[in-house]
Amino acid sequence: MKRLKPSCWRMQICKENLQLMRDSEFEELVEQASSFCYKHNITVPTMDEEYVIPGRSRRNAPMKTNYHRYRVEIFVHVIDGQLAELNDRFNEVSTELLTCLACLSPKNNFVAFNKQKLGRLAQFYPCDFSDRDLLMLGDQLGVYVYLMRSGIDFSQLEGISSLAEKMVEKGMNEIFPYVYLLLTLALVLPVATASVERAFSAMNIIKNPLRNRMGDQWLNDSLIVYIERDVFACIDNETIMRRFQNMKTRRGQL
């Protein structure tokens, strides 16, 4: 949590550099590659000539130049794939969420504090913050940051986890309950995100082509057993069978 804002900036710069490379740096790359090939006596294809697919007849091959092959089908295609992956994992909502989270950092005497962005962060949690709660949060934030910056106990903190611990220690969590709620939501976010990704990864293993007609309840039960397999490994088969047998009257004995 300490370096969220610099990380967001780096991600944005990375996206912009990839887009710049895609739009205007292909010719420079070709010059560098050609220079390397000339130096090592490697044949360099002429970009305006027709591209021939190795091992295929020219009669049925689609007409395209080397320039189209290397720029559009390889260079642009690879960069578009990287941009799509970055935009999928770090879209505008995710980036905004991380930027707002960074405003909770107590580092350098709460230099990253931003009341508007913290209010926006609370709006990402409509189940935890009603309209009235958002107004109360806005009122608490002004007094909160003043007390934090003027208190010696909070001046040397580095992360929001230590901030949350210090607030509980000093009883500030009861004075600023909405600010403390925002802190706890920020602290559990990485765990919640990892848990969701873990569940989706497990789903691909559990619901395979041989089990593609699983119902929701069966899928849910199977996922719990798979994800929490360390817990279930401690339960012996006899206990499971006895539990299943006692659920209702059965003709046969397990």
- Average pLDDT confidence is 81
In whole angstroms, the N-to-C terminal distance is: 52 Å
What percentage of the residues does DSSP assign to strands (E)?
Answer: under 5%
Structural class: mainly alpha
Summarize the biggest pleated sheet: none
Q: Total number of β-strand segments?
A: 0
Along the chain, the helix and strand elements come as HHHHHHHHHHHHH
The total count of helices amounts to: 13
Shape: flat
- Radius of gyration (CA) equals 29 Å
The quaternary organization reads as single chain
Q: In percent, how helical is the residue content?
A: 55-70%
Low-confidence stretches: none
What order do the helices and strands come in, and which of them pair?
Elements (H helix, E strand, L loop, with lengths): L3 H21 L1 H14 L26 H24 L2 H11 L4 H4 L4 H9 L7 H20 L9 H11 L1 H4 L1 H30 L9 H12 L1 H4 L4 H10 L8
Notable traits:
254 residues, mainly alpha, 13 helices, 0% strand, flat
